[in-house]
Structure formats: structure tokens, C-alpha cells
Design brief:
Length: about 450
């Protein structure tokens, strides 16, 4: 993508309403713009990054055996009354009426809707287990929307729902989603710590919240340093092997890790003092096993092997997809701007032409742009007629993993500059060698 043809409204100054790093940088980097309190337009750069995160979530859900579908944003109030949640949910739910005075709501979650779909589709134990999921926009009318996409009213969410014939099977489905979350967040460059959590209005008796440690986190968390020392990126699992799944689950839940809502000082004291970490955390995912809380009132059952109906055991599993963009930036930035992990970056490389209008520089930059693009490397080509300092500052703010600079001085000796954003490592290479290195580095992303 040529920057002269793109829509990228960068800001030099930080807007006054931006209180945390991710909000400031997303506004300054031209990723989002506020429409109303807690509701944002996703501009082209932000939307590309959002799609990258969404794709990774899709891939890891399906690797774990979850099946995608899509449910509506607007739901009838009557199904929430059947489950008993309509009046209990609170003012966060946006309640509306259609032109026929039928009561509707903008879905904050989808337990009722998916339970009815499965009730109608699943008749026998042979149809189980099943995990279904979708990625859909949600709305919750927060009292104080703030921190940009970290606590907005409208947000993109992945919610999955498991259906099993037995409690034992339901716990295995829960463990599969737990492991899937570990792998999802690791691919995004995040250490998202699974912590024993309160179930809240969703209900149930088993719940884990996945949080990244950050000073701007909303929750106080207590974590055994032994858990933080684990190699999150090396988790390998065979989802068809219950022992493999259970082993990973046990490995990541045996050490103490809790939010303030479930913190127990007596149990915490059993962790050696030198391993105790107290910090703030940002939630990026939450999973629940709640048994028959929804299937029983909504009469979702299947015929068991003995010919008798069995009420289905359920769990739900949420990831804040749009919130993840803010979380990634909170965890990965420096004084100059965003530092994108490669899997989530909106583009792989920033190609900077230092002297637009110079025939040799233009030709070399154009050739690199064409070669890299043809090889599948996603390039943001800064072909603006601007000062070098301004171009470098803009690219540092955007924070793409690589910057490839073409200038008259380097070309005079047959070289271009390749710089890695993460650590600032810089190399002088021939254009051909630089292109080859970028193609190899981005293969498979």
C-alpha cells in the first residue's frame, strides 16, 4: 500500500481524553477515532490489525475443534426471560423495541441464543460433544467507558459455547478451550496469565480469566512467579488426546494465580515470598463452565445411550478481540510508539523512500515494493515528499516490525538499510539481500 493513496491521519499531539498508552498511540497512529462515548470507528490501519488478530483467533479455535457460525446482534427479550437473565443482567444491557412494540435487546453475550440453536439441532448423544463459536460485535452500556478500546461500549468479541452429555466431557471441553487460549495469546506475543476468577452474571462453578500484566490494568492480581517463568510459546498439544490436554491444563493451573475477586490470603501465604508477584492485570479472555444453568430452563437435551433424555452440560469462552489490540500495545511499546509483534502487525514492513523524485531512489524503491508485494510481504510504502526525520518518526509511531530505507547515499554504494523495530538492530544490505531476508522473515505469518 502506497502511503500517498492510503488514509492514515497521524496526530503529532496526544488528545486530552487519552489516559493510557494504548489509547494515546491508537489515536496518534490513525487507527481509531471516537464516534461517541465508548464507540469507535476503526480506520484502515486499525482495521487491518483487527483483522490480523481475528484471523489468529479463528485459526486457534478451529484447531481445537470449535465450529464457526454467526448469530445476530439483536436478540428477542423473550429468550432471556426464559433463562431468567433479562431482569437480572442490569443496565449494561441495551433494551429496545421494534416498530411492532416487541421487546428486543442488543446482545451483550449469546448463551440463550446458542442454546436454542443447539436444542433444535442436537437430538442424540451421537451428536456430541460440540463446540460452536462466532466473532461478533457486542454492546454493553458501561457506566464509565474509558481507556479507548480497552473499555468501550461496542466491541468485537469471540464467544464459544461447548455442549456435552456429561460433566466429565464438559470439563474436557473447558480444558481444550483453556489450552486454545494459551496458544492464541502466545501467537500474538502476549503472556496472558490464566487466573482463577469469579463467574459473575454468566454463572457456574469453574472460571478462569486470562490477563496480561500492565500498570494500567483494571484488576489487582496475585501470581506465582513460577507460572510467569513458563515458556508460553512452546505449548504443544494433541486435542484428540484427553491426557495431553489435561496435562497442559494442570501445568498452568497448579501454581497460584488469582484476581482480587477470588484472592485467598491463606492459600497465597503458602507461596514462597520470593515468588509472590502482586501487580495489575488487563483481561483479554474469560472462560466458564456452568453446567446446566442455561440448558435446563431452555430445555436443551439429547437422548443418551440408554434412550433417556439428558440435559446438556455447557461452558462459554470469550475473547475480547478488539480489546486485544489495546492489550498488545499496552504490553509492547516504547517512547517512540507501538512495537507490533509480527503476527498482529497491520503491515510487515515500512518501505521508506528518503528522496522522492530522485530517479535512482524511486526506481530502487519501486522495484523493492513490487518484488516484496509479489512475494506476499505486506508493505506500507512511504512515498510521500516529506523530510526524512518526519518519515522515520511516523514509522516508529506506527511500529511495523521492519523498516526498509532507500536513500541516495546508501544506493551510491549499492546498499539499503534494514532495521528491526523491536530492538533497533540495523543492517546495510544489497536490495536483493534485504528483500530475501524480509521474505524469509515473514513467511508463514
Amino acid at each position: 500500500m502506497r502511503l500517498t493513496r492510503y488514509v492514515l491521519p497521524l496526530l503529532k499531539e496526544t488528545p486530552a481524553e487519552a489516559q493510557i498508552v494504548s489509547h494515546r498511540l491508537m489515536l496518534r497512529a490513525g487507527m481509531i477515532r471516537q464516534s461517541s462515548a465508548g464507540i469507535y470507528s476503526w480506520l484502515p490501519l486499525g482495521y487491518r490489525a483487527l483483522q490480523k488478530v481475528e484471523r489468529i483467533v479463528h485459526e486457534e479455535q478451529q484447531r481445537a475443534g470449535a465450529i464457526p457460525l454467526l448469530m445476530p446482534t439483536i436478540q428477542p427479550a423473550e429468550i432471556w426471560r426464559e433463562s431468567g437473565r433479562y431482569d437480572a443482567y442490569g443496565p449494561e444491557m441495551l433494551r429496545i423495541k421494534d416498530r411492532h412494540e416487541r421487546e428486543m435487546l442488543y446482545g451483550p453475550t449469546n448463551e440463550e441464543m446458542i442454546t436454542l440453536l443447539v436444542r433444535d439441532a442436537v437430538k442424540s448423544w451421537r451428536d456430541l460433544p460440540r463446540i460452536l463459536y462466532h466473532i461478533q460485535w457486542k454492546f454493553r452500556d458501561e457506566t464509565r467507558p474509558r481507556f479507548g478500546v480497552m473499555r468501550g461500549r461496542e466491541f468485537l468479541m469471540k464467544d464459544a459455547y461447548s455442549f456435552d452429555l456429561t460433566a466429565e466431557g464438559a470439563r474436557l471441553s473447558y480444558q481444550k478451550m483453556f489450552v486454545s487460549y494459551l496458544k492464541t495469546f502466545a501467537r500474538l506475543g502476549l503472556t496472558a496469565v490464566p487466573m482463577k476468577a469469579d463467574t459473575g452474571p454468566i454463572g457456574g462453578d469453574l472460571s478462569h480469566e486470562f490477563l496480561i500484566l500492565a500498570e494500567t490494568g483494571e484488576s489487582q492480581v496475585f501470581v506465582d512467579k513460577a507460572l510467569l517463568a513458563k515458556d508460553w510459546s512452546s505449548v504443544e498439544v494433541d486435542y484428540e488426546d484427553p491426557a495431553s490436554v489435561a496435562g497442559i491444563f494442570e501445568s498452568f493451573t497448579s501454581a497460584y494465580a488469582r484476581t482480587d475477586e477470588t484472592h485467598d490470603e491463606a492459600i497465597w501465604a503458602e507461596t514462597p515470598a520470593e515468588r509472590q508477584v502482586s501487580a495489575r492485570g488487563v483481561e483479554v479472555g474469560h472462560i466458564f463452565y456452568f453446567g446446566t444453568k442455561y440448558s435446563e430452563p431452555l430445555k436443551a437435551a439429547a437422548i443418551g445411550p440408554d434412550g433417556q433424555p439428558v440435559t446438556l452440560e455447557m461452558g462459554s469462552y470469550g475473547v475480547g478481540v478488539s480489546r486485544l489490540l489495546g492489550a498488545i500495545i499496552e504490553a509492547s511499546h516504547d517512547e517512540n510508539g507501538i512495537v507490533w509483534p509480527e503476527a498482529a502487525a497491520p503491515f510487515h514492513v515500512a518501505l521508506v523512500n528518503l528522496k522522492q523524485g530522485d530517479a535512482a531512489v524511486d526506481a530502487a524503491a519501486e522495484k523493492l515494493y513490487a518484488e516484496l508485494t509479489a512475494a506476499g510481504v505486506e508493505v506500507l510504502y512511504d512515498d510521500r515528499d516529506e523530510r526524512a526525520g518526519g518519515k522515520f518518526a511516523a514509522m516508529d509511531l506506527i511500529g511495523l516490525p521492519w523498516r526498509l530505507t532507500v536513500g541516495p547515499r546508501g544506493l551510491a554504494s549499492g546498499q539499503v538499510e534494514l532495521r528491526r523495530r523491536k530492538d533497533g538492530a540495523t543492517e546495510e544490505l544489497t536490495p536483493e539481500a534485504a528483500a530475501a531476508k524480509l521474505i524469509a522473515a515473514t513467511r508463514g505469518l
